[in-house]
Amino acid sequence: MAGHKIDALGQFELHPVFGGLGIYFTQSELMMVIAAIIVPVAIYFGMRHKAVVPGRYQSATEMCYEFIHGMAMGTMGIKGKAFFPFIFALFFFILTGNYLGLLPFSFAFTSHIVVTVTLALLVFLLSILVSLKNQGLKFFAHFMPAGAPIAMAPLLVPIEILSYLSRPISLSIRLFANMVAGHVMLEMFAGFTILLVSGLGLALGGPLGILPILLNMALVALELLVGALQAYVFAILTCMYLQEAIEH
Amino acid sequence: MRRFSVRFPRLVASLVGGVALSILLAPALSTNAMAAGMPQMDFKNPLVIAQIGWVLVIFFCLYLAVKYFSIPQVEQVIHNRRSKIDGDMDSARQAKAQADKAVEALNKTRSEAAAEAQAKIDTIIHETRVSSAKQMQELQARLDNETREAETRIVQARNSALKQVDQMAKDVAQSLVKQLLNEGVKDEIIDNKVQQILSVKS
């Protein structure tokens, strides 16, 4: 096997972009910046003609807007209009991050738990602040389900609090785990090809190495689906948490 | 279908080329460097922890860009389109209302004109009937008058003829007597006899 091993986790290592300048700015942050630039620039170019009868690019841009708008307004209602830009930015930040990670020599910043936890905590803290602002101290009453016997309170309240506190954990780990799993699988199957060619030689390993590549192509398609789905799940759960904070 | 048939061979060619290139480059891309555990969980690494600050800053920048730049841009276009559609719909509704009014006015005018024409026709028919009745009356009166005059003339003619019958009877009687007796008779005798006969007959 010529000493080759599959290093599926090495792709997640961070490397400073500016070398030894002492700035903690890695390829992860670079991709974040690129994602943060791509979103407004893509929308700008999509909408620059401001056509009443839109072209394909403008239609796609408007469809993206309508999709998020429908999702946000449908979940949060008119009271949640103020949070629509936040949901919009969150969805496209995660989606672009997921898709950027699929490009060769790129990096998926959503595959870092620190990033997803930060975003999830941002959502969590925002929903708590909105709850406190809208409901005041009544917010804490929700930890005791309405209609439940008082005697059950010592059991129910800790469960409810735990359930509430688990929100950012589930939100962040879901995205992180999906992205890590996808990229590990891509790396593993790509590694199989490398192992086959380097271990068995081009004559025998070459034809055999085609299979993992074909599988990887299917995995890329799957990752495109997963990337969009995870961004959607993150955004819709954010909408639901904010809706609870607004409505109750 | 035709476009697909043109593109499909290209697609297959690029796939085959990509796969072949991947296989050829595979040994060169391999690396012996191995990550120890999950790099994402290495919280002692400042590069990992630094992402917290960066993601907050970058996401905040994106949020601002989206809120104050991108979303208003899209909303403006959608709002303009909606306004245009609403404006066009209003114009269409106004045009329809005007058309309905025009049709209504046309129908009203037509029915008025029809009623007026009917009234005129009725008047003309009535006048014609009155006129013809009057003419008939006049004609009847004239005919009656003429009939009366004719009857008067007939009576006069008969009376005149009857008057001449006496003379003719006298003349015929005188002539017959003369031819029978070969001599004349006095006129008074003839006159008396004729008068007697005529009076008996009348």
TrEMBL record, chain A:
Transmembrane segment boundaries: 30-47, 82-101, 107-132, 139-157, 193-215, 221-242
Compartments, record wording: Cell membrane; Membrane
Family affiliation: Belongs to the ATPase A chain family.
Main location: membrane
Organism: Commensalibacter papalotli
Alphabetical keyword list: ATP synthesis, Cell membrane, CF(0), Hydrogen ion transport, Hydrolase, Ion transport, Membrane, Transmembrane, Transmembrane helix, Transport
Gene name in the database record: atpB
GO CC annotations on file: plasma membrane; proton-transporting ATP synthase complex
Source superkingdom: Bacteria
Topology term for the membrane: Multi-pass membrane protein
One Pfam family cited in the UniProt record for this chain: ATP-synt_A
CDD domains: ATP-synt_Fo_a_6
One GO molecular-function entry: proton-transporting ATP synthase activity, rotational mechanism
General function of this protein: Key component of the proton channel; it plays a direct role in the translocation of protons across the membrane.
Full protein name: ATP synthase subunit a
TrEMBL record, chain B:
Residues in coiled coil: 89-156
Top-rank lineage group of the source organism: Bacteria
Pfam families: ATP-synt_B (PF00430)
CDD domains recorded: ATP-synt_Fo_b (cd06503)
TM ranges: 45-66
Gene Ontology CC entries for this record: endomembrane system; plasma membrane; proton-transporting ATP synthase complex
Keyword annotations: ATP synthesis, Cell membrane, CF(0), Coiled coil, Hydrogen ion transport, Ion transport, Membrane, Signal, Transmembrane, Transmembrane helix, Transport
Signal sequence extent: 1-35
Topological category with respect to the lipid bilayer: Single-pass membrane protein
UniProt keyword Signal, yes or no: yes
Location of this chain's protein in the cell: Cell membrane; Endomembrane system
Keyword Coiled coil among record annotations: yes
Predominant place of localization: membrane
GO molecular function, one term: proton-transporting ATPase activity, rotational mechanism
Similarity field: Belongs to the ATPase B chain family.
Function in brief: Component of the F(0) channel, it forms part of the peripheral stalk, linking F(1) to F(0). The b'-subunit is a diverged and duplicated form of b found in plants and photosynthetic bacteria. F(1)F(0) ATP synthase produces ATP from ADP in the presence of a proton or sodium gradient. F-type ATPases consist of two structural domains, F(1) containing the extramembraneous catalytic core and F(0) containing the membrane proton channel, linked together by a central stalk and a peripheral stalk. During catalysis, ATP synthesis in the catalytic domain of F(1) is coupled via a rotary mechanism of the central stalk subunits to proton translocation.
Summary of subunit composition and partner proteins: F-type ATPases have 2 components, F(1) - the catalytic core - and F(0) - the membrane proton channel. F(1) has five subunits: alpha(3), beta(3), gamma(1), delta(1), epsilon(1). F(0) has three main subunits: a(1), b(2) and c(10-14). The alpha and beta chains form an alternating ring which encloses part of the gamma chain. F(1) is attached to F(0) by a central stalk formed by the gamma and epsilon chains, while a peripheral stalk is formed by the delta and b chains.
Name of the molecule in the record: ATP synthase subunit b
Gene: atpF
